Amino acid sequence: MRSRQHGLLRLVTSVVLLSAAVSCTGEDSPEPEPSPTPQPTPTVYAGEAPPGLAAQPLRYLHGPAQPGQDILSDPLGVRIHSVGDAFLISSNSEERHLLQHAADGTVLWQGESHIERFTQDRDGADVFEVSTRTGDRVTRTVVNEAGETVWTGSDPRESYLNGLVVRAPAEWSASDPYGTFTLRDPAADGVEWSYEFTAPDEAEASSAEDRDTADDEDDAAEQAAHLGVPVGARDEVVLLDDGAGLLQARDLTDKGALLWSVSGDTVAADDGRTLSAPRPRLVGFYSLPADDTSPSDEADDEDTDAEAQPRRTVLVRWSSPEESSLLSLHDLRDGETLWTLTEPGSNTVGRAFATTPVTGTVWNGTTGVLLVPQADATTSLIAVDLVSGETLWVFEDAVERSIAPRFALAGYVYGDTRAEDGGTQVVFDSRTKDVVADDLSGYVEAVTDDGYALVVQNRQRFVFAPETPPGGTATPSLSPTERG
After folding, report:
1. How far from 229 is each of 50, 122, 164, CA to CA, in Å?
2. Phi/psi of residue 23, each to 5°?
3. Strand partners, 110
4. What are phi and psi of 105, to 5 degrees?
5. Residues 6+ apart with CB under 8 A from 421
């Protein structure tokens, strides 16, 4: 106790002596320095423009005279995605969104609904789906890149699939997928097709009965009687998955007539290898250059124009447990297998009857290269030439596996690196993997289909035009992280 009292006494004495010393100097305590004046948001871009963009920006977003300044002043910031040729600006603090044309900033749409997903219509154009809730009632609305409402509905049995409204059977589930499906165009006078998807035992019994009464019935007719769940659509073609490894293409303009079908046990790699019980998953729809054939001298102008049309294709991944998956590219209209490719490792199918294409792909229409993510432990990504089906390069070492490609711009791919020092953005050639830049003056946040980019630098967002207008032969790809 005595030692504690002496310690306390010494502490008090020290405080008193210190106070006396300060008072004897006659000097006042220093005034706190005034807080610095907030610096204005810069309006001039410093440094070189990112690869593939014009030298100087067209405009900037953060400023009192700029459209959408209210949402851009959100205290928690905003997130921005591309939708076709527009930028969708979303508040981080509340459900507020603004769609503006990338080139000139024209406001196309504003809303306060929850954004459910980004997807595409039957022409391959970007759309997004929002939802609002009133009690137990949820209303979903699909908006296109021009800010126009494409479809709205509140029936829980209906969903939007690539420009089609699909009405599923009552209490539909992936474990019990059978029943009557109805497909229709959202337009009032659009196409409508209904069919019944029957369980395998019923389909097999029906096929056996038909063979008893008509011995000359071929396999094509039997396949035409076996349908599936809609998983994707493009133009006038809808794809059905039967859940057992059969993928069918049906003609919406001909009452669902069978165009072609393919199963994983008929798709073989170059070495003839096939998978055991493979299941399909759509990677995406792509338009490729027309065949490099010269028209005959007798061909008229109409035939020449027809031959010049891009070739519409669909890419499918076939997966089987414990086996390396296969990619197969098919002509969308006649189903011709253009090529097959063995992937580095096993890529699981995921959710049954998934209508979301494989996520994480990046399509560079300028060079015809598709980046496909992999679940393999040593190879995280492969680059495929979609015309030849050749693997151009792969991501192998730890440095490359730290790169997450986000989008394509001209002949380049932009990716984020996950590094211990906080990461950065790297730009590389899509065909060679050669790094073009890794010390950009600004961060490219989003790129539109027509090549306009939003670049962040020093608290400002600048809009750049493309260095050269992009070509129009390729269907835009989904965003690797947002769309599905």
Report:
1. 44, 17, 13
2. -70, -30
3. 98
4. 80, 5
5. none
Mean pLDDT computed over every residue of the chain: 84
pTM: 0.83
Taking the C-alpha atoms of residue 258 and residue 156, their distance in angstroms, rounded to an integer, is: 29
Positive or negative torsion for Cα 114, 151, 89, 232 = positive
* pLDDT tens sequence across 122-148: 999 999 999 999 999 999 999 999 999
CB 102 within 8 A of CB 94: no
Indicate if the pLDDT at residue 416 is higher than 70: yes
- In this structure, are residues 318 and 326 in contact, taking their beta carbons and an 8 Å threshold? yes
Reported as a single tens digit per residue, the pLDDT across 214-229 is 444 556 556 667 899 9
| Residue 207 identity (one-letter amino acid) | S
CA–centroid distance for 128 within its chain: 11
Higher pLDDT, 401 or 206: 401
Report pLDDT digits (tens) over 148-191: 999 999 999 999 999 999 999 999 999 999 999 999 999 876 67
